[in-house]
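Fold tokens
===========
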Amino acid sequence: MSDSPTRSDFDRYMAPNYAPQQVIPTRGKGSRLWDQAGNEYIDFAGGIAVNALGHCHPVLVEALETQANTLWHLSNVYTNEPALRLAKCLVERTFADKAFMCSSGGEANEAALKLARRYAHDHYGAQKDKIISFHQSFHGRTLFTVSVGGQPKYSQGFGPIPGGIFHAEFNNLDSVRELVGDDTCAIIVEPMQGEGGIVPADPGFLAGLRELCDQYQALLIFDEVQTGVGRSGSLYAYMEYGITPDILTSAKALGGGFPVGAMLATDDVMASFSVGTHGSTYGGNALASAVALAAVEYIDTPEVLAGVKQRHDLFREHLEAINRQYGVFQTIRGMGLLIGASMSPAYEGRAKDILPLAIDEGLMALIAGPNVLRMAPSLVIPEADIHEGMARLEQAIARFVAET
């Protein structure tokens, strides 16, 4: 159509804080997308680990349509049935006793960090306010969460940033011991660093964090915004490790594409969020809650979760085969269907150069920093789409190597 928006409209009308690819997808079904010109793409990006069931999954569409014809939004002056069902579902399937609903991962982490400080204030006094995070971590884009995140590039120019925040080395327990003390209120960690390069935590490292938190009466917060809701092969990655946090944050795959987030905690901890201490206009929105409930119930089944681990092996086999031929990757790592391939020294920092070549070949992928090619596809992506998508990736890699 002559009045269809173009990529140049982004540059004209949108804030310049993104640099999207040149194509504009207009339709999706399963693990495939089509752009304005009708070109088809296989989706290994998954909306950055959001589209856990692909595009327009019938279970999610039905939940959305049913709720859309019933009730959309009330505000938190009232509660609603979908929010209560979702909260019950999350509590019954996890360690948690209570759920706080919100609209995004950043908002969920903001709530978790505020809750940790409020809990410490209530139980031990205002002096117990130190938060320990990790270099290369990512916890959101609010001023508080970018300050807690361990990538200074996201907080530069926005100062002064909140105080009382310290950063240790991921997978280095000794570096945490140097920082932790009686003034520590919380340690926040991703079970697998996402934006930091798809780096899984060592089991002993997470176990050590749990011990340190118990020793110093601090809360252990697991940021499972990217690893949660089946992405690891379990409903949440803490289940893979057998390490239970005090607070857990969830978003992305939680809504399968519909904006929704949640912060989960035990009764004792959540009690510090008394009436009026925190809130979210859209938290517990009926539409979002209905879709999220359908997503969780569909994903948290033995068939889907076992399929995630099987697909992980298939992705790894293909990536290793590509690497044997082209030698572009140094390591292939990850958990479940969050997979990273770090670039070899000869191609250091050039992961982003693969993305437009992949688009040309009909494949959508991601990066995790300048040196890691990232894949976060649908948890139920058909094996045929994996084979074909990897063939397209190999073509893109061949062009990348030839052009280099």
Notes: Residues 71-299 form a domain with the Aspartate Aminotransferase; domain 2 fold (CATH 3.40.640.10). The CA atoms of residues 187 and 265 lie 14 Å apart. The longest strand covers residues 329-335.
